Amino acid sequence: MSIVVLVAALVAAGLIAGLFYAYACSVMPGLARGDDKTFVEGMRGINVAILNPVFMLTFLGAPVLAGVAVFLGTGARPWVIAGFAFLVAMLVITGVVNVPLNNALDAGGDDYAAVRARFEAVWVRWNVVRAVVSTAGFGCLVAAVLTQRG
Question: Where are the bilayer-spanning segments (predicted)?
Fold first, then answer.
């Protein structure tokens, strides 16, 4: 049972790390090429679209499943604990930095240049941190599965 939970955590962590990676290397650079209105309205649309059950399942599921795997115990427990810690850090970064910036973007009105100036650089920087942290969590869970299986 513990290996099933661990693999489920691994898959969810890989999906969420991949999402943040895709933002870092394609979505945000692509939006950066647009004018202020295109950038702001594009991000506003993305912020609405991403709040869906599939995203929430992976975003919340990765740390929850990793936490369950910690308590179920495996021979690779230090790796699982590390993966869990990184995935919790990803949640904290999102909740403390990215979500408030998304909310400010949504409430920012129609002065697109000002809204973008307050949002873009900070959001992009912290998304890169989020991508690195979630990828580290994924990597730790990979190590846990390899240790468990080997």
Answer: 50-72, 79-101, 128-147
- Residue 69: burial class (beta carbons within 10 Å; 0-12, 13-18, 19+): buried
Q: What is the pLDDT of residues 38-94, one digit of tens each?
A: 999 999 999 999 999 999 999 999 999 999 999 998 768 999 999 999 999 999 999
Exposed/middle/buried for residue 62 (C-beta within 10 Å: 0-12, 13-18, 19+):
buried
51 DSSP assignment? -
Q: Indicate the angle between helix axes 36-49 and 112-149, nearest 10 degrees.
A: 40
Element (H, E) at 39: helix 36-49
Q: What predicted TM-score, i.e. pTM, was given to this entire model?
A: 0.94
